[in-house]
Design a protein that fits this description.
Layout (H helix, E strand, L loop, with lengths): L2 H11 L3 E2 L5 E11 L4 E8 L8 H11 L5 E8 L9 H10 L7 E5 L2 E4 H4 L10
Parallel strand pairs: 4-5
Antiparallel strand pairs: 1-2, 2-3, 2-4, 5-6
The structure holds zinc ion.
The site of zinc ion (ZN) has 6 residues, from helix 3.
InterPro entries: CMP_dCMP_dom, Cyt/Deoxycyt_deaminase, Cytidine_deaminase-like
Organism: Candidatus Daviesbacteria bacterium GW2011_GWA1_36_8
Protein name: CMP/dCMP deaminase zinc-binding protein
Length: 129
């Protein structure tokens, strides 16, 4: 799957829906490819009290459900096809799922890919202190 195809697939997941009390879901879509070549996807769910999560979180949960942990490439896309870099929580989440994910290619703009380690130069590690 090319980068453009990944971006298009993530964009196709974006179908903003209103939940109760003005809360929303599926404002952002994410697609990832594992080191085994399998593709997983997810959408954001924006609820209150810290219960909501990013689209990357949803895609990673689907990957773990499938028994995989190593992400080769990941992208998140908003409505209108805007590619969005992962938030700090998702950066750390990818790392904590598997430290090899520091080598994950993260699409942060349409024509820009960086390694997760560039986005997370000092990941949390209780054993490294
Ligand atoms: Zn996030």
């Amino acid at each position: 799957m090319t980068d453009e195809e990944l971006i298009e697939k993530a964009k196709s997941l974006v179908k903003p829906r209103k939940l109760r009390h003005g809360l929303t879901a599926a404002d952002c879509g994410s697609v990832l490819v594992t080191d085994q070549g399998n593709v997983y996807s997810g959408v954001s769910i924006d609820t209150t009290s810290g219960m909501g999560f990013c689209s990357e979180h949803g895609a990673i949960a689907a990957m773990v459900t499938g028994g995989e942990y190593k992400i080769k490439k990941i992208v998140a896309v908003l409505e209108d096809g805007i590619v969005l870099p992962p938030c700090g929580r998702c950066r750390e989440f990818m790392y904590q799922i598997d430290e090899d994910n520091l080598d994950t290619d993260v699409i942060i703009k349409k024509d820009k890919i960086v390694k997760l380690r560039e986005l997370l130069p000092y990941p949390w590690d209780a054993e490294d202190n």
